[in-house]
Amino acid sequence: MTRILYSLCGADESRPFSPHCWKVVLALRHKGLDFIEKPTPFTEIPALENGFSKTVPILRDGNELIRDSFDIALYLEETYPNRPTLFGGEGGKALSRFVERFSQTIIHPAVTNIAVADIHDMLGETDRIYFRKSREAFLGRTLEEMRAGRDEAIAAFAAKLEPVRQTLKYQEFIGGDGPLFADYILFGALQWMRVTTGVKVFADDDPVGQWFERCLDLHDGVGRHVTAA
Amino acid sequence: MTRILYSLCGADESRPFSPHCWKVVLALRHKGLDFIEKPTPFTEIPALENGFSKTVPILRDGNELIRDSFDIALYLEETYPNRPTLFGGEGGKALSRFVERFSQTIIHPAVTNIAVADIHDMLGETDRIYFRKSREAFLGRTLEEMRAGRDEAIAAFAAKLEPVRQTLKYQEFIGGDGPLFADYILFGALQWMRVTTGVKVFADDDPVGQWFERCLDLHDGVGRHVTAA
């Protein structure tokens, strides 16, 4: 059976950077499932699998096609129930959605403020045109204006993770003693920033930075294997 | 067997307002457990149960004494496993801690900005002295300065719940189809504000306000039964 994860890359396909695709990479490895990753530039995504989705991740699992990182995680949990759980039960499933929405509304904009101009610079020519136009329209600022605010955004970043920092006083992972999909959700956001910018946002003794390092080591260091910018 | 919840009140003991105690009230009702609530002024808490805890909630469950709302919820889940679950499994337990830390670091300070002067005014004479001194030291501002910033704090409040708002696009409760302890955690914060201030912070069509109304109706309307300020 062929299992393919379509993910996102810039000009260098060895450095996939999408936060949502990283969530799925860790989820697949968590379940112990083999897969082939096919990093794809932004503007080639709409043609994948006969136009199945405008965005990645897309997972082909034999005859099944699934899009959206959370839906893929739910699919994996349902389809492979005897492998390690991604949610730890129905409560964990529901509350993972809250973690996703926290990451999406608070952490993703903070990463964007730091990384958006760097992401642009990683892309191939065709993607750059698409990316600049769509992101500048969304942000209401030019990439150059975003870059000018980068240092300020870096300084403000770590504080946004305060709920995570405090959670880690009680447990090694957001999911408890070991990682769950909730960890991969937040890992995805930080890995996106790491691969695209390489900036240091956490003090050495920050529990959030230490947790991120633990996540980089998970599943044979699949996250660490892709180098930081 | 005697089950007693020691909670917090001001001069009027019919209007307990502590967010942490409200979490436990809902958790006990969720488990279908009878209890006597004993609302207690701030300065009388240290004498409860031979000085067992400086803060409420304190739960006496027969011969057991437990403090701290999260620890009480864990105790109830372990002690009464055959009654409705508060966590929905181990994943839900771990991620509820994240919801608690979100509430504590983002929502509680926002409620404090709105409510702290009103809370003072609800207290008896002895408590007022303790409360003003401890809160002004903690906040670095006088209660009068806090009151002056109240309208601004009200206007800024609803946006802080954005991760909750987005979660409610997917499910009726933070815990999924029905409420879990995670709902009671955030309910506690909003009920604290409702009982002490009565201010309207949500637009009528705000899904967060609608969820809070659903929570007020839970368990025979135990939350709604205490009137807003």
Helical amount among residues of chain A, as a percent range?
40-55%
What is the H-and-E element order of chain A? Answer: EHEEEHHHHHHHH
CATH architecture of the largest domain in chain A: Up-down Bundle
Q: What's the structural domain tally of chain A?
A: 2
Q: What's the gyration radius of chain A in Å?
A: 17 Å
Order of strands across the main sheet of chain A: 2-1-3-4
How many extended strands of chain A? 4
CATH topology of the largest domain in chain A: Glutathione S-transferase Yfyf (Class Pi), Chain A, domain 2
Most extensive interface, chain pair and sizes: A-B, 32 and 32 residues
Q: Helical element count of chain A?
A: 9
Oligomer: homodimer
How much of the polypeptide of chain A forms β-strand, as a percent range?
Answer: 5-15%
Mean pLDDT of chain A: 97
First-residue to last-residue Cα separation of chain A: 34 Å
By helix and strand content of chain A, what is the structural category? Answer: alpha+beta
Please give a structural write-up.
- Chains A, B: It holds the Pfam family GST_N_3.
- Chains A, B: It comes from Neorhizobium petrolearium.
- Chains A, B: This is Glutathione S-transferase family protein.
- Two copies of one chain form a homodimer.
- The first copy, chain A, is an alpha+beta fold.
- Chain A has helices spanning 19-30, 69-79, 90-122, 125-139, 143-148, 150-157, 162-167, 181-197, 207-221, and strands at 3-8, 36-40, 58-61, 64-67.
- The first copy, chain A, folds into two domains: 3-79, Glutaredoxin; 90-221, Glutathione S-transferase Yfyf (Class Pi), Chain A, domain 2, CATH 1.20.1050.10.
- A four-stranded mixed sheet of chain A has the order 2-1-3-4, covered by helices on one side.
- In chain A, a hairpin with a 2-residue loop joins strand 3 and strand 4 (64-67).
- In chain A, helix 3 runs antiparallel to helix 6.
- The longest helix of chain A is centred in the middle third of the chain and has 33 residues, at 90-122.
- Chain A is globular and about 50 Å long.
- The mean pLDDT of chain A is 97.
- Chain A binds chain B through residues 85, 87-99, 101-102, 104-106, 162-164, 166-167, 170-171, 173-176, 180, 182, and chain B through 85, 87-99, 101-102, 104-106, 162-164, 166-167, 170-171, 173-176, 180, 182.
